[in-house]
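pls ignore typos typing on phone
zinc ion + seq
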Amino acid sequence: MNKCISGKKSYPTQEMAEEALIDAHIVYDYGRTSGPIAVYLCEDCGQYHLTSAGIMNEKLAQYRKDGTLEKLRRARQWEGKYRK
Ligand SMILES: [Zn+2]
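k done
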């Protein structure tokens, strides 16, 4: 994986970037105003990065709206409890 001059983590596909974006929102409860909200194709490295600027990613917006994010978060918390 090529390192980008932006210093941000790079994802080869939009799907992988979206997955990482949603994953970040499962692990950290960002609330409404902080954290990455979208993915974009970088002109420097030709790969995808997460960004906190712009319009919220459709999949993330959908997951927040329909409760999927909350479900995934709860599932993740359970996993954490079992592991300990
Ligand atoms: Zn880049």
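Residues 4, 6, 10, 42, 44-45, 47, 49 surround zinc ion (CB under 6 Å). The radius of gyration is 14 Å. more later
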